[in-house]
C-alpha cells in the first residue's frame, strides 16, 4: 500500500489531532515537533505531520517529514499536498516559503528565506540586519540530495535540481539544473525551448 493510501485512511485522526494541538500555544507545538524530530517509523511521521499541519499557514495532505528535519517559522510557510521532505533537511521560513504540490526534497536539502546584508560594512556580519526574501518551490519539483536553495529563489514547476547544487538564480519550469552555482544543463523531454 502506498503512503498516500495509508494517509487517506488515517487522515481524519491526524486532522483531529492537529485541531486539538492548535488549542495549545505555538511554543508547545514547536516543542512537541522538536521532541519527536528523531522518532522513526509511522509514529514519528504521524506526530511530525500533525505538528506541522497545526503550525504552518497552510499544509496539504500526505506530507512526509523525515526524521532529523529542522523547520522554523512555519507560520510563514505554505506546503502543498503529496510533498516529501526527507531526513536531515533544514528549512527556515522567516522570509516566507511556498512549497507546491507533488514536490520531492531529498535528504539534506537546505531552503533559505533570509540572508545577512553584507553591504553593512560598518557592523560585524553577525550583527547585520537580515534580508527576508520569499522562496518558492513550484508544483512537481524534484530537488536532489544536499541541495541549497538560497533566499528569494523561485524554482519553476517540474524542474529538477541535481544533487549538491547551490541555487542562486531562479530556475525555469521543466529545466534540469546542477552545479555550484546551479546552471541549466538540460530540459525535461517535451519541454525544450523552441529555437528561433
UniProtKB/TrEMBL annotation:
**Is Transferase found in the keyword set?**
yes
One term of GO molecular function: acyltransferase activity
Signal sequence bounds: none
Q: Which domain of life is it from?
A: Bacteria
**Is tRNA-binding one of the keywords UniProt gives this record?**
no
UniProt keyword annotations, A-Z: Acyltransferase, Repeat, Transferase
Q: List cellular component terms (GO).
A: carboxysome
Q: Give the protein name, as stated in the record.
A: Acyltransferase
* Gene source species: Oscillatoriales cyanobacterium SpSt-402
